[in-house]
Each structure stands twice: as structure tokens, then as C-alpha cells.
Amino acid sequence: MFLVGLVHDRPANAHMRKSVIILLVCVLILAIGCWLAAVRLSDRKTDNLISPTVTMEPVKVGLVGSPSARFAGEYFASQGGLYAQRGLDVSFGSSTSQEILAKVISGEYQFGLLSADALIKAKAGGRPLTAVFVTYRVCPVAFFIRPGSGIATAADFVNRKIGVNDDERLPFRSAMRRAGVAAGAWQEVPRGDSFAPFLNGDYDVLVGWVSDAYRLGQADGSPYVTITAADLGVQNMTDVIVTTEDFLKRQPEIIRGFVVATQEGWQKSFEETNQAVQYVHHFQADATAEGTTTELQALHPFIQPNVGSVIGESSFVDWRRSVEALDELDHFRQGIDVASLYDMSFLP
What we know:
It contains 12 helices and 10 strands.
């Protein structure tokens, strides 16, 4: 009887084991399904960068002049989602330095890009502005000389016509002083945004940026002689990002997000040049891949002069030299607290 009972129990035990196995498999399948759903949700959140429930903070930035690779870092941060990732809805306005100054102070712009000397003068005049980021720590201004003009050095600029705009005037004059050329020994004419007057021979020297070399070469293929202001010892920082002291106190997180994203935008522009080219083209319709790449290569050492240099940073020494350079040319005798000109604490 015992053997008969045992024989009858075996099928029952086997059936129970089979049921348990099926149950475990079902639980495992359910767990895997939940995990996959969580992964997909996480991916969607990553793709969107921010939660749709987060309120985007509108931020307006004033840029000097026409769109170009000069602003590649800001363009990358904008089009690449780096500003959006930090809850910032950034837009750009193109204005003159004086217009940017007025619009930042009025609150129409939250940030503006100015030269160091423009900020120093504004600060000395009682304007409550502070620099939070320095794009070009080394002066990117260059002097382009017409082939066959007989000009070889800055000392040869005497009695020559020089095409120069307001934003490049101080570094140009500072370079002339360092070259030993007496003030007023040359004739300055406004050059505007077009290279045509220079190409037509209306003046002998064009004061521009190092990144202008590509477009000049493309215009007529001439091998222009180039002297940089930095070669002559000029240390004038530019495209300094400024904001008001009030905004600095009220919105430190917006400033931090903007500064960090801008720094990352510049770093990625140098690391992912092909992508940077596309973003520059979004703002500058006539930009070419070759041109933008060449311009970025030319600008890089003026933004990041040494290996390991932190993009966007500046020091007390940098600002003191800028004040001293302004004093040399404009007899800038007004007392100013150099340390009050900048706040680099928002950089990572």
C-alpha cells in the first residue's frame, strides 16, 4: 500500500514543481518588463534634458557685431541644449558696445559682451557692472597690411591710413605706443563691417581680428602680412561677459548656469568642430565648414592660451594690466577698485 501511495504522489509533486517554475518565469518576465519601461522613461528624460514641468528662465544676451565664429561657444551652448539643460531660454541680440552697455543696465539684456576697457570706463563712471566670464583672455586684434604697401612693421604705420572700428581702437593705439609711434602720426578712418574699402585700397592697414585672415584671403587670394596686438605686448581682454551687480545678487543660480554652459559650449566647440560648424551656420548663413574651422583654430589660443588654462577665467593681474593700459592712453586717473571689476566664482 505504501508503494502504491508513493507512486501516486510522484505525478502530483511533479505537477506542483512545474507550476512553481511557471510562476517564477512569469515574475521574472514582469520584472524585466518593468526594468525596460524604467530605462525607456529615463532615456526620454535624458533626451529632453529637462523636465517639461520646469519653467524656462528667459535670458537675453547682447553680442557685438555680426554673427561669426567669434561667438561659437555661445552658439554651441544654445543650439546644443547646454543652456536649456540648466533651465535657461537664451536668445541673442546684436548691438554696438554702447547699446549693449545701456541695455544691460536697463535690464533688457541680462548679459552683454564688452571689451575690458569698456567695462572699466563704465565702472569708473558709476555703472554697477561686473564681469563673470572672459572669453578672450589674450587680445585677438590683428593688423592686416596690403601686399606691396612697403609696410613691414608697426613702425611703418606713420603717415598711413588705418581702417579701425571703435572696439579695436584702444588695442590699436596701445600697440602703436609700444611700437614707439607717436600719437597722431597716422590717420584713422572708420572701417565698418565690410572689407571692400581695404581691398579697394582706400586705406593701407585694416585693424580686425585674427579670425578675419581667412575671409580676407578668400576675397582676393592675397598673402596679407599680419601683426597681432599681442605680439606687441598689448594685453586687452575682450568679449568679457558682464551683468549688473543687482542681477548678481538676485539671480546667482542663473548666472552660474549661464557661465558653466558657456564654458562647456566653448570647450565642445574645440572638441566637436563639425558640430560647432553647424551651429555657427545656424546664426551666420554664409558660414562655410572650412571658414568656420579655420577661424576657430585661429581663435583658440586667444581663449585658452596655455594647456590646462580654464576657459573663461581671469585674474587680478589681468585686470590691473587692463586698467594700466587704459591709463597710459587715456590718462585714466580715476581711482578704481580692480577687484570689483570681476567675479570668477561662478566658474566650475
